[in-house]
Amino acid sequence: MRSVSQSVLTPGSGRVKSQTMTLPDYDPLPLTVSDLSLERGGIPLISGLSLRVEPGEALVLLGRNGVGKTTLLRALSGVLRPVSGDIRYGDTPAIKSAPAICAFLGHDNALKPDESPRQSLAFWAALSGRSADIPGAMASMGLKALADRPSRRLSQGQKRRAALARILVQNRPVWLLDEPAAPLDGEGREKLSATVTAHRVRGGLVIAATHQALDWPDARVQELTR
Fold first, then answer.
1. Which of 36, 43, 50, 180 has the most CB atoms at less than 10 Å from its CB?
2. Can you tell me the distance from the alpha carbon of 209 to that of 222, in angstroms, rounded to the nearest whole number?
């Protein structure tokens, strides 16, 4: 259990108020992939993949562009049906459970040009329907001084930090991250690593796809090739 300051968007006012609350650890929810085959546009990308990720673990999917990393993340998120094989969170097929338990970070940061990080996080927190620590998410990603700056005035690295903070406020046990560190500087990469570690301590699991190594403590690495 941990105590946090929950930020709530007040209906009709557009203002955010805070209240102290306690967030529990996540329920144990392992990911099991069995004999999975995937294709994109009729072209086979992944064949016969099996793996298991336990709560509290991080798995880094390493490989060059075009080997199927993003396609695999989409399948894990439940939006892409496999050609064959099985994906489960606990005992439930991903196609049923993933939308409620997975937070997905794609290449697109999903930030509106005139919207500030604070406004964006308030929107995503309300949309997720879960308890959210907006100030904590901004602090974790080094956004406190940029909280009210329009996204069009942020650098690419700052935009990526804001997108990563969105994953935090969604407060879901499974993180699926596509090239999470690509535009980040050294400080940003350190903050990302610390945030991933904190998520794992709560029993969350992280699967990240990347073409470059990620310096995450005790992370497993699985190389994808074609």
1. 180
2. 10
Work out the number of other CB atoms within 10 angstroms of the CB of residue 198: 14
Q: Is 131 exposed, middle or buried (0-12, 13-18, 19+ CB in 10 A)?
A: middle
Cα dihedral sign, 48-53-57-123: positive
Its CATH class, for the domain covering 2-220, is alpha beta
What amino acid is encoded at 211 in this protein?
H
**pTM (2 decimals)?**
0.88
Residue 155 gets which letter from DSSP? -
Which two three-digit tokens encode residue 158? 């700052």
Side-chain-side CA neighbours of 140 within 13 Å: the count stands at 23
Residue with structure tokens 């690509």?
182
Measured CA to CA, the distance from residue 97 to residue 199 in angstroms comes to 20
What six digits make up the tokens of 97? 């459970």
Q: Which residue has the tokens 């300051």?
A: 5
Q: Where are the domains of the chain?
A: 2-220
Query: Is residue 85 within a helix (H) or strand (E), and if so which, with residue range?
Result: strand 84-89
Tens-binned pLDDT, residue by residue, of the chain (226 aa): 554 444 444 444 444 444 444 456 888 899 999 999 999 999 999 999 999 999 999 999 999 999 999 999 999 999 999 999 999 999 999 999 999 999 999 999 999 999 999 999 999 998 887 778 899 999 999 999 999 999 999 999 999 999 999 999 999 999 999 999 999 999 999 999 999 999 999 999 999 999 988 989 999 999 998 7
